């Protein structure tokens, strides 16, 4: 710890630091108290993954990552399934002390691997020796760090924090008992809770409930540690809305490319409603859904003369969709003072415009609105005319319907039917009034009679088709197709479909002859359209879902922003990780502590250290307490 320009630095060390979410947050923490500014100085971030350590330094801008495998030999064998190489050795407390730059850190943070404790891992697999060895790092890492500080530094970290998944409270109960026993033994007041929402602590765009242990060494920090002020959660749109468009790797870096998913996966995403998941696919009305192709922006686009043109592409044509190939050219003035008579119609009651030497319809006013040919009685007045029944008919001509009045509005057919015309009465209801004209066209003269039921044994041969290779059914006196088996499947007429019936044509070949009965039952009237990809074809497609939005996967860059990583690295490049695949980058980002949450938790830790330094052991405050002083039990004599 040293003071520089009224800034007092508290040292911090991190075990299992990953790519540096916690480190980046602590380096942003800052508290003003008692006329001083308190900040963190990072001693080291230890991790066994060299790629994670490389990216830790890339994100934080400091060379503080240390590659160190904290496995003990039995853990290494259980996890890897084989003995370590000859040059491998177990880490000792001295190695930890050297990584701590031979200083006892004021704050020690641990985020041990949580794979074996996560609910994403099946219970039976989590109980295997392999994952139990990984889980034990939560105890062995802490134990070795405390041993290094006590043996070589003569003191202990003032505050210790451990982060993990909430499921540790059920899958890791024995581990938690050992950790609490170890901390209490060394004089720590301990808070153990699995309901910390780092999203609310850091004001993130995600819910991130985690397990946290906060331990305060009572001899060094006799005062309380306050809980960070909870902030409202932001929407996911608030976070990723201002970011570059997905796929823009120039502005968003290589992690902002969209994953290449299978076509069927894109379709599933489009069919799941916002806020839903795979279970909603069971509700899809798939029989009434169709996939249609919508051209990209640019088809038939007319460019503005005053604006830059879009990119010229190799498929630039007026009907194409990749580039603009038409322009609104203002140099040909059709209007104003130039060529005012183009396609002009002159009025008959006004003077004519000047007759020019090129008086064509496209060059001069050579057209006129002629009133001499107008509608008047006697000039084709009866085209499509309907004659009223009470007026004189026009002259009967030899013309057809389109030329003469050969239609009449005949009032003798009254199409207003009586109520109950063609009515069918319900068997269980009271009959309607019986009238003298009780015919089916005038009254409800029909009934739904349930007494004739369709049951096995009654008229079994109705519309029956007999097989050619079996004996015929009995010939009855009412042998017609509705009463007996009067049909036979006669094999002598081979009615094989014609060639091309139900035919599907190849997209890349010449089409077959189009016939007058061109449907799928009569010819090759179907085509294998390659514009809709195959189910397993991978790519990036824009499918507009039923709610009018694009249901797409989040890019790795967007996931990093939801974890509150910076949009740009200290060297000015968009946020990115080096030396790993996109899948591994997502794993690193998902395992990281959100930077903004780490910053807020670091602020309350710095405040606790500043108050302890100022000798403040008690104060009135509305802020909730995270770790309160341990209350000593006072013996009471009962009389």
Automatic annotation (TrEMBL):
Segments for region (Disordered): 308-331
Keyword Methyltransferase: yes
Keywords attached to this entry: Methyltransferase, Transferase
Name of this protein: DNA cytosine methyltransferase
GO molecular function: methyltransferase activity
Superkingdom of origin: Bacteria
InterPro entries noted in UniProt: SAM-dependent_MTases_sf
């Amino acid at each position: 710890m040293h003071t520089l320009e009224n800034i007092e630095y508290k040292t911090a060390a991190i075990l299992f630091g990953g790519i540096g979410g916690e480190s980046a947050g602590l380096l942003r923490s800052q508290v003003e108290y008692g006329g001083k500014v308190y900040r963190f100085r990072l001693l080291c971030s230890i991790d066994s993954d060299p790629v994670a350590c490389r990216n830790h330094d890339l994100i934080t801008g400091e060379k503080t990552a240390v590659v160190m495998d904290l496995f003990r030999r039995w853990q290494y064998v259980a996890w890897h399934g084989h003995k370590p190489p000859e040059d491998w050795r177990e880490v000792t407390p001295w190695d930890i002390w050297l990584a701590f730059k031979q200083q006892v850190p004021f704050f020690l943070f641990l985020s041990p691997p949580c794979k074996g404790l996560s609910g994403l891992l099946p219970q039976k697999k989590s109980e295997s020796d392999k994952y139990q060895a990984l889980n034990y790092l939560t105890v062995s890492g802490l134990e070795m760090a405390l041993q290094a500080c006590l043996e070589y530094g003569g003191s202990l970290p003032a505050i210790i924090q451990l982060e993990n998944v909430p499921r540790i409270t059920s899958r890791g109960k024995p581990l938690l008992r050992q950790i609490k026993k170890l901390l209490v033994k060394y004089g720590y007041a301990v808070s153990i809770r699995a309901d910390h929402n780092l999203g609310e602590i850091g004001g993130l765009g995600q819910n991130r409930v985690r397990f946290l242990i906060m331990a305060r060494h009572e001899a060094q920090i006799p005062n309380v540690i306050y809980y960070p002020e909870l902030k409202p959660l932001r929407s996911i749109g608030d976070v990723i809305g201002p970011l570059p468009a997905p796929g823009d790797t120039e502005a968003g870096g290589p992690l902002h490319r969209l994953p290449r998913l299978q076509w069927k996966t894109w379709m599933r995403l489009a069919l799941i409603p916002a806020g839903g998941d795979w279970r909603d696919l069971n509700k899809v009305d798939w029989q009434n859904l169709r996939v249609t192709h919508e051209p990209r922006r640019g088809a038939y686009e007319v460019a503005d003369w005053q604006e830059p043109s879009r990119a010229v592409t190799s498929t630039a044509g007026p009907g194409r969709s990749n580039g603009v190939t038409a322009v609104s050219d203002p140099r040909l003035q059709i209007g104003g003072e130039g060529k005012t008579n183009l396609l002009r119609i002159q009025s008959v009651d006004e003077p004519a415009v000047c007759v020019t030497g090129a008086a064509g319809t496209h060059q001069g006013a050579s057209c006129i609105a002629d009133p001499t040919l107008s509608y008047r009685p006697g000039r084709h007045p009866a085209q499509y005319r309907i004659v009223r029944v009470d007026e004189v008919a026009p002259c009967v001509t030899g013309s057809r319907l389109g030329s003469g009045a050969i239609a009449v509005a005949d009032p003798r057919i009254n199409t207003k039917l009586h109520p109950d015309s063609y009515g069918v009465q319900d068997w269980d209801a009271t009959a309607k009034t019986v009238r003298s004209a009780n015919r089916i066209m005038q009254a409800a003269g029909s009934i739904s009679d349930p007494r004739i039921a369709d049951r096995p044994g009654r008229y079994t041969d109705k519309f029956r088709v007999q097989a050619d290779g079996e004996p015929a059914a009995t010939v009855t006196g009412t042998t017609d197709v509705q009463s007996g088996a009067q049909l036979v499947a006669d094999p002598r007429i081979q009615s094989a479909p014609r060639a091309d019936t139900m035919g599907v044509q190849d997209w890349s070949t010449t089409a077959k002859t189009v016939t007058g009965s061109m449907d799928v039952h009569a010819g090759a009237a179907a085509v294998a359209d390659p514009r809709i990809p195959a189910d397993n074809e991978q790519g990036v497609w824009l499918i507009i879902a039923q709610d009018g939005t694009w249901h797409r996967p989040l890019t790795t860059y967007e996931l990093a922003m939801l974890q509150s990583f910076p949009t740009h690295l200290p060297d000015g490049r968009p946020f990115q990780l080096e030396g790993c695949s996109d899948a591994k980058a997502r794993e690193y980002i998902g395992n990281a502590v959100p930077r903004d949450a780490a910053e807020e938790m670091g602020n309350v830790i710095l405040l606790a250290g500043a108050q302890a330094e100022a000798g403040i052991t008690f104060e009135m405050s509305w802020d909730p307490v995270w770790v309160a002083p341990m209350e000593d039990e006072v013996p009471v004599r009962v009389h």
